[in-house]
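A quick aside before the break. I want you to see a complete sequence-to-structure record at least once, exactly as it would be stored in a machine-readable document. Don't worry about memorizing anything.
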Amino acid sequence: MLTSLFKIEDEFHDLQDRLVLWRRLLVRQWGFQRRVLFLLVSIQKKLDETGRHLEPAESPFHLKQCADQIDFMELEAQLKDETNRRAVIAQLQNIGGADPKDAVRKILKRMMSNQLMASMNLKGKDSKSAFDSTLLFAVLKEAVIKRHDVMETDILMVTASCLKNAPDRSGGGGRHK
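That is the input. The structure line, written in tokens, reads:
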């Protein structure tokens, strides 16, 4: 009887030790989870700040995507001001891209909706607006040339391709026959 009582007491102490170990493990795991969540939140804040670096608060001009021709005409009017034009060029350079082709695509996507791009082509043929004669195109060229060592004809070709394929992308409205 006494031996069985000692066995029970040993098992009880063993269970208590296990419980202490489990508590320590849970506390460590909870600490790890808190640390991971903290790091995720700080990464998200850094990503948000990165986006803001493209448009400094003191900048005279803030980029926004043009959804339609009215927005585009307003942007064109704002680009007539040299200060705004310089600010936009600096901001577009920061959008970056792996190569000139990628930079042109990113800038067009950032500045114009697919619906607006679908209503334009480079030369203004087939009842579409001409993009090559706009101030935005001049600003785009200058930003890409400053960021990458590229010729203007390469920018023209990539821009033409982006505008040509805009109706096929989401929000582009599709092809009209």
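Two observations worth writing down. The helical segments are 2-53, 69-79, 82-95, 100-111, 114-118, 135-147, 152-165. The first strand starts at residue 120 and ends at 121. We'll return to this after the break.
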